[in-house]
Specification:
The strands form two sheets. Strands 1-2-4-7 form a four-stranded parallel beta sheet. Strands 3-5-6 form a three-stranded mixed beta sheet. The protein has 229 residues and is an alpha/beta fold. Helix 1 runs parallel beside helix 3, helix 3 (57-67) runs antiparallel to helix 10 (192-210) and helix 5 (117-125) crosses helix 10. The mean pLDDT is 92. The protein has a single domain, classed as 2-enoyl-CoA Hydratase, Chain A, domain 1 (Alpha-Beta Complex), CATH 3.90.226.10. The two termini are 15 Å apart. The chain has helices spanning 6-21, 43-48, 57-67, 83-86, 117-125, 127-136, 142-147, 158-173, 177-188, 192-210, 213-228; strands spanning 28-30, 72-76, 79-81, 93-97, 101-103, 140-141, 153-155.
Length: 229
């Protein structure tokens, strides 16, 4: 299910940073192979090598997606767990297939939200809705994601979702590139530094929570349920 490992975070960060510097690249689409966008963090990798340092590949990816200056489009199909949902808050346009399922199971694992989502999600959908999604960890479908503004378009199938995102990306690519970059910068200007500060605080609390007995027990229960299946 495309669970993210340290190596995958590192590659994503490298590719985003490279695309940001390459003038010929006018927009970027993040998509996935297989049936799912991502099952979230690889739990075993997470437990064996917890990302508790600010120079970790996880931190590098979050910084890269937060600071990315060009249009970022994300295509979601199947499950988008944890960071698979929070990264969408840094996208400019999100297209989801009808079978997409989103979830924010941080508290269920004894953790706290990350990727600036504790700031961005309430700002986007309101405190009450964000609190319910964070505090219950329950999944929600593509239609609800569109209703609350996390998703721009819901289309029938995975191939349709990618083609829709590509169609939009091509339209953007034909626009004057500096005007696009400046527009995105202006749209983010009043919250960029605030999000950076929140991401730093989230990371510190997340790192402490990751080492807690509460989180360890929640992870062990999660892994046990997986083995039983």
């Amino acid at each position: 299910m495309n669970a993210l490992t340290r190596g995958m975070y590192g590659e994503l960060a490298k590719e985003l940073n490279s695309a940001d510097k390459e003038f010929g690249i006018r927009a970027v689409i993040i998509t996935s192979e297989g049936d799912h966008f991502t099952g979230g963090n690889d739990i075993t990798d997470f437990l064996e090598h917890p990302p508790t340092a600010e120079d970790s590949t996880v931190a590098a990816f979050l910084a890269a997606i937060h600071n990315f200056s060009k249009p970022l489009l994300i295509v979601v199909k199947g499950n988008a767990v944890g960071v698979g949902t929070t990264m969408l808050l840094h996208a400019d346009i999100v297209v989801a297939s009808q079978n997409a399922k989103f979830s924010l199971p941080f508290t269920s694992l004894g953790l706290v939200p990350e990727a600036g989502s504790s700031f961005l999600l309430p700002r986007m959908i309101g405190h009450h809705r964000a609190a319910e999604l964070f505090m219950t960890g329950e999944s929600f479908d593509a239609d609800f994601a569109q209703e609350i503004g996390i998703v721009n378009y819901v289309v029938p199938g995975p191939n349709d979702a990618y083609e829709k995102a590509r169609e939009i990306a091509l339209k953007i690519a034909k626009q004057p590139p500096q005007a696009i970059i400046n527009t995105k910068a202006l749209m983010k200007a009043n919250v960029h530094d605030a999000v950076s500060a929140v991401m730093k605080a989230e990371f510190e609390i997340f790192a402490l929570a990751l080492q807690s007995d509460e989180a360890r027990n929640a992870f062990m229960q999660f892994l046990s349920r997986k083995r039983e299946k």
